[in-house]
What we know:
Radius of gyration of chain B: 20 Å
Order of helices and strands of chain B: HEHEEEEEEEEEEEEEEEE
Oligomer: heterodimer
Number of strands of chain A: 7
Number of domains of chain A: 7
Number of helices of chain A: 32
Largest interface: A-B, 23 and 20 residues
Strand content of chain B: 35-45%
Distance between the termini of chain A: 133 Å
Shape of chain B: globular
CATH superfamily of the largest domain in chain A: Cytochrome c-like domain
Distance between the termini of chain B: 64 Å
Largest sheet of chain B: 5 strands, mixed
Largest sheet of chain A: 3 strands, mixed
Strand order of the largest sheet of chain A: 3-5-4
Structural class of chain A: mainly alpha
CATH topology of the largest domain in chain B: Immunoglobulin-like
Number of strands of chain B: 17
Shape of chain A: flat
CATH architecture of the largest domain in chain B: Sandwich
Helix content of chain B: under 10%
CATH class of the largest domain in chain B: Mainly Beta
Structural class of chain B: mainly beta
Strand content of chain A: under 5%
Strand order of the largest sheet of chain B: 5-11-10-7-8
CATH architecture of the largest domain in chain A: Orthogonal Bundle
CATH class of the largest domain in chain A: Mainly Alpha
Number of domains of chain B: 2
Amino acid sequence: MLFEQRARIPVEQRSYGKYYLIFSAILFLGTMWSVWDEVSVRRPWKDYQRRYHDLLLQRLDSVRAEVHAQIDSTAAAELVAELQKAKEALSSEEYLNALEQKTDLQKDLDIATREWRFARSRSDATYYAYKKAVAEGKDASSLRKELDGHDADIAHYAAEMETLNAKIAEVDVILNRYTGVVDSLQAAYNKMMAEVNALDLKIQRASSAPVQIRQVMLNDFEFTPFNEIKARIDRCQTCHLGWADPLMEDAPQPFTKHPVPELLAKHNPETFGCTPCHRGQGPALTAGFAHGDADHYWETPLLRGVDVYATCNTCHSNELVLKHAKPFTKAKQLIFESGCFGCHEVKGYADVPKIGPPLNDLTGKTSPEWIYRWVKNPKDYNPHTRMPDFKLTDEEAEAITAYLVKISGESTYRPLRSRGAYAGGSAQLGKRLFESVGCQACHTLGDEQTVRLARGTSYDIAPELTRVGSKVSPDWLFDWLKNPRHYNPEARMPSLRLTDDEARHLVAYLMGQKDTRSLPPVNLALQDEAKIQRGDRLIREYGCTGCHSIKGMENEGKVSVALSDFGRKKYEQMDYGDTKELPKTAKEDYIEHEDGTVSVKHTWAGWVWGKLKNARLYQTERIAQKMPVFSFNDEEIALIRMFLISMTRDVPLPAYQHPYDKRMQNIEAGRRLTMRYNCVQCHTLEEGGGYLVAKYEEAALGPPPLPESQGAKVQEQWLHAFLKSPTTIRPWLEVRMPTFNLTDEEIGIITKYFLGLSRQELSLRDYSSFAIDEKYLAPGKRLFEVYQCAKCHPTGNVRPGEVSASDLAPNLVMAANRLKPEWIKDWMLDPSKLQPGTRMPTFFYEGKGPDETVFGGDAHEQIKALQTYIWSLGARRRNVIAQGN
Amino acid sequence: MMKLLGVILATACLGGTLFAGDVTGKVSFNGTAPKPNRLRMNADPVCMKAHKDPVVSEEVVVNKNGTLKNVLVYVKDAKGGAAPKGKVVLDQIGCIYVPHVLGIQVGQELEILNSDPTLHNVHSLSKANPSFNQAMPMKGMKLTKKFDKVETFKVKCEVHPWMSAYIGIFNHPYFAVTGDDGSFTLKGVPAGEYTVEAWHEKYGTQTTKVKVDATGKATADFTFTGK
Lengths: 885, 227
């Protein structure tokens, strides 16, 4: 209708006004919308920033109110009143007069000073003319006169200046009387209000903070996949604004304070950004894209939970311990102890020795039946063994046993003592020894689980001995206990320097620990050559040599895939076998169904979880798998998966890395050695380990910790001798420091490790020539008596078995041969600082010693005196010995 | 209006202090008292000389009336009260800590005395508060300590391993230690319902509910059973 009507109007006369209006309106609204969308909707960070500033102001206000409330308000009011009064006094007649007087005097002084300068200039000019005239032989007397006149002027004005200055000083005394009061009151008031004022400044800054993108740019940070250097841009702090503010400890995300400020001290987000550790899409400005969840094509989404520690490994792959990244340290330990590197190439574990024992002399130790049962299912004999389950068939287990028995037949190992030499021990005494000398640091037996619980791992570091009596032969055990290196030259089991009788008692005790289950008998045909051949093939195929050295297989390589870039593998590249798919958002990672099928998430993380839970999970009829089944608990799986996330080749350029210098290399070598020999089972080292200590009622009765200052504590020569052949330092300890038969090279590594932790260099030093200052000797002796050091520290020969209070601390005769002199001083100043929990008390507080008659109580002088005396105890003995010889 | 509000507030405050009372009670002991351990002080002649009669351990002291000594009783869920000005003294005399168990408020001064002419070290096994281990080698030495956190911990002397004391730290003044008659009084507890806890170094803790009402009196009795 409308259009028909309109069609009748001639074209020239038709009005387009309405259309124009409508389209203009649409265009206008569209423009408005796009501006709104661009400025606000697509910039949610603006809203975050406003909300953050509101929150910050709110919290600052409440803190300010709290701080303000703590100020004594009457005292503050009094101060303000006094200040007011003092300021009012500034308008008193005396002050104003004095001020006026000073202004006048100052003016006069300025004039006098100017005139004095002019006089000097005139004098200089005339002096030149005078000297010139003298030099040219002309008459200079008039010039001389003029010069004298100028000099008189100078003196005149100088005197005037002096008088004026004196007058000004007089007036200043009056002025200062007034202003001094004001200044001191103002200072007192400022001091009282300092905290409030600082908060006011913060409040002012927060209320005027601009809404803007906060960006960190890391130039030349990394390589692109095409080997070009590229920068990294982080804008995370545009929304995550409160990471450094203690007020934001419990604030909601994205404003929460960073939970581990210690890490930020070394990786400052203002210069290092956030994505190098947390990953995500740095330049993005909306949560979904920045975290990578909403961007399907972003390859490195945000790491959540424990996974964030994975990125530590990009730069710290050489290190086993990171002080402030405990999950990283634990994951590294797990990989180290589980021996993943036996079959897989793993970055950072290139030269770690095999974790299992050699298998060349097995029949010297145990029976073929035991070997068969063990190979078939290790967890059956020892549920906490590190040996995984290869799910072998009976026939495969028999073949492998056949091979191992065959090579044992070629072995030359025989116990050193004649058959039956072990006999005659008392099981009861053996038990007592087992529980006291330190066996339990590594081995569990029966219900005693202290160390296993303290370690918190799903596996033990040494065999559980609950059924050992059914495993080993007593002759072998006796030989092994006396010297483990005889059976296995690379044994990690140390010698505890047992006497023959002690070893016999232990054999009696341990051989009594029988496997009480009734096991079905096995019939093994081990002489069959075909079977031996098959065993040979199976051992190579399954990669047993990854953990064990086996005769005839010295040159086997790693049997499985390299993991060095595993973290970048795509989920599409993985095979999920017959598993069902769990939704990505599911809480569980692994569900076993009643029909035997399993559901996992079909993602990278889900695949890894399933694989670590059950290495044969993705096996199908067509696809066989060789990886054995481990028994990691869920916490361990999460840690290993975190470690695997780090397996990429993305490494920042050296400028962004912590230098792996000589000191770090020394420390790292020491960590590997001490982990290999399980030193940390007994000793606390770098805040870890010391598991055995949990067994003792009091920490001082267990093995001593090795604090970071250990390298600064003991003399290198002493440490070398001690590690070669340990001697008793703490007679009250039942647990013994074992003899590890360390090589000189290994002792060198440990020495440099301790020195590195203490930030000391290895240097050649003759401690015996440490000079004693005779002046300090007598006061030292006196203090030693007054402070009753001998109440705990013996200072000479102690009769064995003698009960006295001086069973509590090391004999100080050892000091001069064992300790570094500087350390003795540090130790006495504050023992608990160097060794938390020590029994040694502090004698010196606030720079004073208790006895004020010696050196006026000065702590440093007294400590020097005590150090001198203690040093003399051992030095004297050394001299005596030298003379005696 | 403001005036009225002020009056109401004032009454409320006064009421708060007015409606307060004492919680009293007794800590009984059931069963046979363990034979007290004799302390062997031969390691230090000074300690030996200080006592004419044999000294026994204070770990379990059952009074003549069948009650238990050295039990620390306190209101568990109370709060408030600034630290009093007075100090609490822990003495070392005859190589024994006196008292064996004591309570103290957060911020209050604890004075540790050495009345023996021998070396003592005072080693606190505190966890929430910073642990200290200080030597007192001379007779008459004094140490002053203050604590910030609520906890109960042991104090010991390594030189004389038999020495031990326990210190309870509270953020309110409602605590007491049972003496020779096994009774205790928690004074001036504001009206309300509370959990009262009794702590003993060997027998652990026991709790009971009490209600301090307008009459301002409440009782809480405990019984520990020997094993």
